[in-house]
Design a protein that fits this description.
Largest sheet: 8 strands, mixed
Radius of gyration: 27 Å
Structural class: alpha+beta
Helix content: 25-40%
Distance between the termini: 57 Å
Oligomer: single chain
Strand order of the largest sheet: 1-5-6-11-10-9-7-8
Bound molecules: histidyl-adenosine monophosphate
Shape: elongated
Length: 425
């Protein structure tokens, strides 16, 4: 009987070698600025009580109304695969009482998120994010710091073709005044039932409506930025001042609407120009009421989520992936049984000192093993046979120009270190 092959579910993104090494590198570039700013890892479940998202992310959003992977578990509980990270962090902070300790709580996370969107380039049903959250501090300086951390992540990758857009959704009085006028404006538009219902849940949502007639109608809609209270205005100006002081360029986009309902105050998005329709490489903002509606104290927070898949696509589009860091430093070809055992010992020592070392196992003939070494892209190769072991010396071959020099086995580590540091300069 011949079995049929099984395919991955539609729209998921998976990373296999050699692409996975580039993915890992991109993810690390995005994480490292958060670590350097004192954010600590939070590792959370990928599934949660469905209420967490319907209440936290908001019923007006596409994410909750159309895109959640929701199912009943064996105990009859409604479970949802996390579509985003912030609500889960809030749940954990409240449940584990982190909000009763030192504030702000500063955490980073990375992992898979799930949204049943229509798949296309850069838009997947399982995708990867790196995110941070800073909870319990109301200070425009931390807004600027959070934006700067995301910005630095993209800079670490070497990206250039992206812009930062910011806006402010103000404080409660700003939003109340704006809402009143916006709802009046909607009454002049003759909205269909579904759109009117969406506007009721979150009046800002219609700024995100892509239908041409709605885009045209919304061109005249009152903008929240014109309704900022003096405090909210002052706050937003301070954020801009801090960004300027850090030489972070930005544009103000008063029509920006984030896809999730919890945002208040400073909000932002990073947009890359080489990615077509799925140009958002990251975004975030303040969410001052979220903790309270999830049953916690009324603490404010701010954070971001960066799309690792899209950051990788952007890095490929800009040609900034460092091609040489994904290959081994040394490839050892052992000839014979005792050479195999020595190769294992030598490789362990070299690896312990940070030199990536591969061994050609499988008793292949020298020619085939050399071919494999060449293919692997390793920077150096040694052949380890009886005579080398007896002499205690190997021929260290540099693969880019074929140069060979004799090196004592015990000096291999030092020799490789110095040659590699010259190469990497
Ligand atoms: P978000 O804007 O929904 O925010 O997602 C953040 C980033 O995840 C997007 O900018 C995009 O790069 C990536 N992304 C979203 N959906 C997909 C998809 N289907 N395929 C590929 N990439 C995708 C949030 O999730 C918020 N939790 C961010 C946040 C944290 N706000 C405050 N704290």
């Amino acid at each position: 009987m011949k079995y049929e092959k099984i395919q991955a579910p539609k729209g998921v993104r998976e990373y296999l070698p050699p692409e996975s090494t580039a993915f890992e590198w991109v993810r690390e570039q995005l994480i490292s600025p958060a670590r350097l700013a004192g954010y600590q890892l939070m590792e959370l479940p990928v599934f949660e009580d469905t209420n967490l998202f319907s209440r936290g992310v908001g019923e007006s959003t596409d994410v909750v109304s159309k895109e959640m992977y929701t199912f009943e578990d064996r105990g009859g509980r409604s479970i949802t695969l996390r579509p985003e990270g912030t609500a889960g962090v809030m749940r954990a902070v409240i449940e584990q009482n982190l909000d009763r300790g030192q504030l702000p709580v500063k955490v980073w996370y990375s992992g898979q998120y799930f949204r049943a969107e229509r798949p296309q380039a850069g838009r997947y049903r399982q995708f990867y994010q790196v995110g941070i959250e800073a909870i319990g501090l109301d200070d425009p300086a931390i807004d600027a710091e959070v934006i700067a951390i995301a910005y630095q992540g993209f800079k670490n990758i070497g990206l250039k073709n992206f812009t930062l857009q910011i806006t402010s959704l103000g404080d409660a009085p700003s939003r109340a005044g704006h809402r009143e006028d916006l709802m009046k404006f909607y009454q002049t538009l003759n909205l269909d039932e579904a759109t009117a219902a969406r506007a009721q849940l979150n009046p800002l949502r219609l700024f995100d409506d892509k239908r041409p007639e709605m885009v045209a109608a919304m061109a005249k809609a009152p903008l929240l930025l014109d309704y900022l209270s003096p405090e909210a205005k002052d706050n937003f100006e301070k954020v801009q001042g801090y960004l300027k002081a850090m030489n972070i360029e930005f544009t103000i986009n008063p029509r920006m609407v984030r896809g999730l309902d919890y945002y208040t105050g400073t909000t932002f998005e990073f947009v890359h120009s080489d990615l077509g329709a799925q140009s958002g490489i990251g975004g975030g903002g303040r969410y001052d009421g979220l903790m309270e509606i999830l049953g916690g104290q009324p603490l404010s927070g701010i954070g971001f989520g960066l799309g690792v898949d899209r950051a990788l696509l952007a890095a490929v589009a800009e040609g900034v992936l460092p091609s040489d860091s994904f290959t081994s430093d040394l490839f050892i070809i052992p000839l014979g049984e005792s050479a195999k055992s020595s190769a294992l010992t030598i490789a362990s020592q070299l690896r312990n000192s940070g030199i990536t070392t591969e061994i050609a196992f499988g008793d292949r003939a020298l020619k085939g093993a050399m071919k494999a070494a060449d293919k692997s892209g390793a920077r150096f190769v040694i052949v380890l046979g009886e005579s080398e072991l007896q002499a205690g010396t190997v021929e260290l071959k540099r693969m880019d120009d074929g140069a060979v020099n004799s090196v004592k086995i015990e000096q291999l580590q030092g020799e490789l270190r110095s040659q590699l540091s010259v190469q990497r300069k």
